[in-house]
Structures
1.
Amino acid sequence: EADIYQTPRYLVIGTGKKITLECSQTMGHDKMYWYQQDPGMELHLIHYSYGVNSTEKGDLSSESTVSRIRTEHFPLTLESARPSHTSQYLCASSAIQGHNEQFFGPGTRLTVL
Amino acid sequence: GENVEQHPSTLSVQEGDSAVIKCTYSDSASNYFPWYKQELGKRPQLIIDIRSNVGEKKDQRIAVTLNKTAKHFSLHITETQPEDSAVYFCAPKTSYDKVIFGPGTSLSVIP
């Protein structure tokens, strides 16, 4: 079944560690997105991509990087985690043509001690 | 830059009453107007959308109305039920093919 997968689902790490959050989709979508969201709060766009080798910064992209080497894979890397990075990270994808509905993954809940 | 607002930010209604959430946007060339629902601990999911050439769309108890002249669109939920309790986000697509999520409206349906 077509879906979006995120790993890990939960992560607790210490300050200063480098981490990569994984996102994969089997939807066949070209567009992919990363959002940061505290529970029940606003979705902040961190990075997005329109296809392979395309990446753009969102409103909240500092201290993180992304890559898009394969259409189905869009990992997010925090070079040096800080307590302010504690949040939920949601990956999403959408088609380029058509209604552009965004489909979201289940999220990764990150805690930085 | 583009601006998206939602009103109200929180809404409490009695079960069975109607709820209306309004989304205003700044880009007059926006052409796609969806509403997403996010239940507690779950991922956001599209519940209804409308395109710029249509004024209203209904799907059972939910409807979306669009006023392009005034640059706003609204989510209407009738006969509310406890399972309608969630955070609702509008996400208009701008002329630059960029989607901007509103800040969200927390709806509580009181049994």
2.
Amino acid sequence: DVKVTQSSRYLVKRTGEKVFLECVQDMDHENMFWYRQDPGLGLRLIYFSYDVKMKEKGDIPEGYSVSREKKERFSLILESASTNQTSMYLCASLKQGPGEQYFGPGTRLTVT
Amino acid sequence: KNEVEQSPQNLTAQEGEFITINCSYSVGISALHWLQQHPGGGIVSLFMLSSGKKKHGRLIATINIQEKHSSLHITASHPRDSAVYICAVWIQGAQKLVFGQGTRLTINP
């Protein structure tokens, strides 16, 4: 079974802190994605990566950056956390489109 | 207007009822996905469709490419089917999924 893990299920951070969310997949997938999920807005794509050291902006990249130094690991970075970044963050991986994406369990981030 | 629209947004039914959730999209797609998310849980893929119909247990998914419409049906619904069901489309020529807002389904015993 494909497994996608995320570093934390719940996280509380203060405004202005730098926040790292990590995602690891164990199936050698080329593509990895970071989404945020908010009530009434559904899932929105923040960034994705189709190869090591490659990244593409999604629909809402402002305030975020990403890092993919190894194929299995994709990190989302909040450079200076703000309260409007309080959300559920979901990572996903995919062998190749338009196939099935495998999602991690999510990280519920609260910024106070 | 969202590229992917789901209806209804919320649905409450009694155990045993036949459930239908609808998804309409306005763009050319390579595939359509139905996903399930339980409270506090991650998201799992139920179906990926590019044409016709698929069945898995009590779940049936259909797609009409010409009408840009898909439906997810649940037969003999059960309280454990209570979840958010999400429609997502893989846009032609793109490298990403676009998601509907989800349908929150509650099945009462």
